[in-house]
Design goal:
The structure holds two protein chains of two kinds. Chain A is an alpha/beta fold. Chain A contains 16 helices and ten strands. The chains are: A alpha/beta, B mainly alpha.
């Protein structure tokens, strides 16, 4: 009976330079899968490598030997001494490996809990493994179950809800004000990494023209070119504000760049259309009192951070719910896995054939009422002998240890051929 | 058609329950069920009103029971129209209880026969009633949208978010839909007032009788006219528009009920209890 074994390292156990050394590119993954497939110590394998984790999922006959082989394999393949990454490695066996796989796919083990990319990356890794025929009955079943569980977690819990970065939080708020950000015009005052990131997110949400105002006009022009927008002089801000819907401010100024009375005037000339200020600067650029003006909304960096923290807390709460779904799924998988044991399969195979024989026997004897008791006994004996003869070869085949190659595949096939229930 | 009316009312109640379920647990299946029930209730309600009208031989506003029933029907009609136009699911949380309450109130009312059936047989009257009721229904939804707008605006301004933030749509959608309700409502009551005035001429021989209902209708009309005017000229939108929609509905309610009960006038005939 093969064990499911998982060997891996992730952002929690390994520093970025260790992860960089071990990470497999797409091409390397393909080559590695072929080598793993041909390695006799490793039965089935799926190799999953992203910038945050490397996981090698295997179904093996001898777990200690397989783990050592796998470590050596990584070391030789990536030409890195085992000692350099050994401390960062973790390994799980059986149910623990199954649970870990589910957790990774459901994004509970991610750096940002609930981030959605991981499932797609895992599907891609599995696709590669099936193409190279590195995975088999056990891992195929496990991975299919994994994708099902991950999808269930996503739809039944709020783990993927709400933004967990400052710029996404701002976008989410913008959507609650404007509905769609499509065509909304944006003004960027000053510059800075986070402000520029927010502008990029807005552009991705199909925002309209970008206007850039910078104290150094040349720098403003440069930024405007990058966003294919237009640059304006710092003194023009107030005139231009009636043309825009979203203002992102991030200057190094010590006093407010925009004051309440200025915006009050501007609101009149823009006929009270909503105006959303995102103030990323510290100290603040935008007078917080502007938030008191009708249809003007001001969020500063602390407000946005507050939202992000709250959302992260929400996600962590949802993660507990997700854990329950995963626990159930682990039990479900264990049930299927146990059916791959030889004895239960033989027992249920025998039970099924005997039940069929018994049923037919009763039917036949019922119509042959003229038979004497001895005749009836003879027919019963014959039926029993038939059952034994039919089952003899398959039972022998299943009992022979491993000499016919992949035993779990044979067991699985037997169960499918005779339509045996997964639970018993 | 009493049983049909009761079944329709019960269906509205279930729809109402589904909407509340949707508000709290946010499962879209509940919302779809609620909207489906609303449509089923509306269909039955229509059958009940048509049957009622056929039996009496005129538009079913002979007493307060029928008037309220038509009111509920009009709100449902306008709600469903806006539901399909703006995909405003959450508005049902306001509309469904309102409709249910109106239906229950209608059920409670006694149903005397109209004193003067001749008074009711006129195409002008039918036009007057249909447009006025649909207009009032649109204004009632504008009020609901105004309330939702204020809740959402408060959540965003106070930065507390909380219960409503994630459940309500964007401010822009609430504002646009509220505006559309007012435009529809205003157009309807304008037509309603014109047909009403023509009908008054036919029945009482004068276009304008300084009847309290007429005066208050004019006040209501002027109120909404002012609201629309301000929006188009200086841009009364957002919070102020929402508040005005709510106040406007208060004025409307007084015109609709208050005048009939508190001030005497010839409209009393239509709300006999």
């Amino acid at each position: 009976m093969r064990d499911i074994v998982l060997l891996g390292l992730n952002h929690k156990t390994a520093s970025i330079d260790v992860r960089e050394c071990i990470a497999f590119t797409a091409d390397e993954t393909d080559r590695a899968l072929v080598m793993l497939r041909d390695n006799p110590a490793i039965g089935e394998s799926v190799l999953f490598s992203t910038c945050n984790r490397i996981e090698l999922l295997m179904a093996v006959d001898e777990r200690e030997a397989a783990l050592n082989t796998a470590k050596r394999f990584i070391s030789e393949f990536k030409k890195v001494p085992v000692s350099q990454f050994e401390n960062a490695l973790y390994h799980y066996v059986g149910d623990a490996a199954v649970r870990h796989t589910f957790q990774v796919a459901a994004s509970l083990d991610s750096m940002v809990v609930g981030e959605p990319q991981i499932l797609g990356q895992m599907k891609e890794a599995y696709r590669k493994a099936t193409l190279e025929k590195a995975s088999g009955v056990i891992l195929n079943k496990l991975l299919h179950r994994t994708f099902f569980v991950a999808k269930k977690v996503r739809t039944e819990t709020g783990i993927g809800d709400h933004a967990v970065s400052i710029s996404y939080a701002a976008i989410e708020l913008g959507k609650k004000i404007f509905g769609s950000l499509d065509g909304k015009r944006v003004m960027l005052i000053g510059a800075g990494e986070m402000a520029e990131l927010a502008v990029e997110h807005l552009i991705r949400n199909r925002a309209g023209t970008i206007t850039v105002a910078n104290r150094t006009f040349a720098r403003g022009v440069e930024l405007a070119e990058r966003f294919s927008g237009k640059a304006i002089k710092f003194e023009e801000i107030i005139d231009c504000i009636k043309e825009v819907d979203i203002v992102i401010s991030s200057t190094g100024a010590n006093e407010y760049v925009l004051r309440k009375d200025q915006i009050k005037g501007a609101m009149k000339s823009r006929r009270n259309r909503s105006l959303f200020f995102i103030d990323i600067a510290v100290p603040r650029d935008i007078d917080p009192d502007i938030n008191r003006i009708n249809n003007a909304y001001v969020y500063d960096i602390d407000d946005l951070k507050g939202i992000v923290d709250e959302n992260i807390e929400d996600r962590n709460r949802e993660a507990i719910k997700a854990q329950r779904i995963i626990d159930e799924a682990v039990i479900g998988f264990r049930k299927w896995y146990d059916t791959l044991e030889v004895v239960p399969t033989i027992v249920s195979l025998r039970g099924k054939v005997e039940a069929m024989a018994q049923q037919e026997l009763e039917k036949t004897l019922g119509t042959l009422s003229h038979l004497s008791e001895t005749d009836k006994q003879a027919i019963k004996r014959m039926t029993g002998a038939l059952v034994n003869k039919i089952l003899h070869e398959p039972t022998d085949f299943l009992k022979k240890d491993g000499c016919y190659g992949n035993k779990s595949a044979s067991l699985d096939l037997t169960r499918k051929l005779f339509n045996l229930e997964e639970t018993h | 058609m009493e049983p049909v009316f009761i079944i329709a009312t019960i269906i509205y109640m279930f729809s109402c329950a589904c909407y509340f379920g949707y508000l709290f647990i946010q499962k879209s299946i509940l919302q779809r069920m609620a909207a489906g029930l609303m449509m089923a209730g509306f269909a039955l309600h229509t059958v009940s009103l048509v049957a009622c009208g056929m039996r009496a031989g005129n538009f079913p506003v002979n007493n307060l029971h029928e008037t309220l029933s038509v009111t509920g029907w009009a709100i449902t009609a306008v709600f469903l129209a806006f539901y399909f136009k703006y995909k405003l699911r959450i508005l049902g949380v306001y509309a469904a209880p309102l409709i249910t309450l109106v239906m229950i109130a209608a059920y409670q009312m006694p149903r005397p026969v109209a004193q003067d059936p001749q008074l009711f047989k006129s195409w002008w009257l039918a036009g007057h009633i249909i447009t006025i009721f649909l207009g009032n229904a649109a204004f009632s939804l504008a009020c609901g949208l105004g309330i939702l707008y204020l809740l959402q605006e408060n959540a965003i301004k106070k930065k507390t978010r909380g219960f409503f933030f994630s459940r309500l749509p964007s401010l822009d959608l609430l504002d646009t839909a509220g505006y559309a309700c007012i435009v529809v409502g205003f157009s309807m009551i304008t037509i309603g007032l014109i047909t009403g005035v023509v009908y008054a001429k036919a029945i009482w021989g004068r276009f304008w009788n300084w009847d309290p209902k007429e005066v208050w209708s004019a006040i209501t009309w002027l109120f909404y006219a002012a609201l629309l005017h301000e929006r188009l000229t200086v841009g009364w939108r957002g919070r102020r528009a929402a508040v005005m929609a709510i106040i406007g509905f208060g004025v409307l309610l007084f015109t609709f009920f208050g005048v009939n009960f508190l001030l005497k006038g010839h409209h009393g005939t239509f709300t006999v209890m």
